[in-house]
Write a structure and sequence with these properties.
single chain; 192 residues; alpha+beta; 2 domains; GNAT_dom
């Protein structure tokens, strides 16, 4: 894998969520050949998240789940560097079912760019579930709010999160010749 110098996620925060730092691209999954790479990314992030030595996490079972459930039922978007997947997002309607970034590529704006892609699809609301202690801070920094606690164990808290578009995705002109565009950007229109 080629290492590319990519700005940290904090540097990306000032950008619009449809922009991404240089060094990787966000695109639709390109064929089932990439499923093995996605399985490895998912597997390593899950093993890391469940550092209690959970032996039920099996790479081959993860690949079968991706082939049989994830790909047929979800839109899968890949973040790739040099053509090699380094992260992915699976979206089913307005629910983010999976978001995984390879550990060596985390904190480089990839998760933010993948979520930005999902936000730009026209949904006024996105939902997801996660372990608060592991990634809740990332989602909260990305504009998601905790809706409810699903369950709590000794090790972690599982939470449903939701993101809502703060402005209706419409355009309108005001008397001052200002055009307000969806997603909170404003463009000045010169007077005739």
């Amino acid at each position: 894998m080629v290492e590319v110098d990519v700005p940290r996620a904090s540097a990306v925060g000032a950008q619009s969520f449809t922009e991404k730092p240089p060094g990787f691209s966000v695109r639709p999954m390109q064929g089932s050949d990439e499923a093995s790479a996605l399985a490895r990314i998912w597997h390593v992030t899950q093993v890391d998240a469940h550092d209690d030595g959970d032996e039920t996490l099996d790479l081959e079972a993860t690949r079968r789940y991706i082939d049989c459930v994830l790909l047929p039922l979800h839109e899968v978007i890949v973040a790739a560097s040099g053509g090699v997947p380094v992260g992915f997002l699976a979206l089913r309607r307005n629910h983010v079912a999976q978001l995984h970034v390879a550990p060596a590529w985390q904190r480089r704006g990839i998760g933010t760019a993948l979520l930005g892609w999902a936000k730009a699809q026209g949904w006024t609301r996105l939902s997801l579930s996660c372990i608060r202690e592991r990634v809740g801070g990332f989602y909260e920094a990305s504009g998601f709010r905790a809706k409810r606690v699903i369950r709590t164990t000794q090790a972690c808290t599982y939470v449903d999160y939701e993101w809502r578009l703060r402005q209706a995705p419409v355009m309108y002109a005001s008397a001052k010749h200002t055009l307000t565009v969806a997603l909170r950007s404003t463009v000045q229109i010169p007077s005739p």
